[in-house]
Amino acid sequence: MIRSNPSKSSSNPVTLVPESRRMSFIPDLFGPKDFFVGEQLLYSLMDQLSPDDYGGGLWEFYERNGVPLFMAPTGRVTYRLSWHGNGFEGEVSAEVAGIIATLFALSHLSFSSPTQAITDSYCRLFDYAAEHTEAPVIFRAID
């Protein structure tokens, strides 16, 4: 398994969620009402974003100050992404691929299930992405 090394782009870095708290991460990220749909949507979006490089597998979970932030695939060091909706194409780290896919999933869910949990998770991750060292590529991908 490849371990991502989340960007230490701020004085408040993200950390890997310990195994003992993985079960509560996804319900906390997507909210108790949407966690199952959110998880499946995230995997599906990653499959669409990276059809040549992503084929399922394990994901790592990242948090900031004990609050869920994003998920990242572990199968490769980098992923080639493309998105038909905006013409984005690029190769990014597993961490950045996870940030992009998680932002896409949260955005999609915000239209079908506009809950406070989804809004809060999206805003947290968007703010983190804005201070990330690879912010320009993240925002090109989600534009």
Short description:
This protein has 143 residues and is α+β, with helices and mostly antiparallel strands. 47% of the residues lie in helices and 19% in strands.
Largest sheet: 3 strands, antiparallel
Please give the alpha-carbon distance between the first and last residues.
31 Å
Rg (C-alpha, Å): 14 Å
Which residues form runs of ≥5 with pLDDT under 50?
1-5
Number of strands: 5
Summarize the helix and strand pattern as letters.
EHHEEEEHHH
Shape: globular
Describe the strand arrangement of the main beta sheet, using strand numbers. 1-2-3
Protein structure class: alpha+beta
Please work out how many helical segments DSSP would assign. 5
Q: Can you give the mean pLDDT?
A: 91
Helix content: 40-55%
Beta-strand content estimate? 15-25%
How would you characterize the overall build of this protein?
The protein is an alpha+beta fold and about 140 residues long. About 45% of the residues lie in helices and about 20% in strands. The strands form 2 sheets. The protein has a 3-stranded antiparallel sheet. Helix 2 crosses helix 3, helix 3 packs antiparallel against helix 4 and helix 3 (about 95-110) packs parallel to helix 5 (about 135-140). The longest helix has 19 residues, at about 95-110. The protein starts with 14 loop residues before the first strand and ends with a helix. The model is unreliable at about 1-5 (pLDDT under 50).
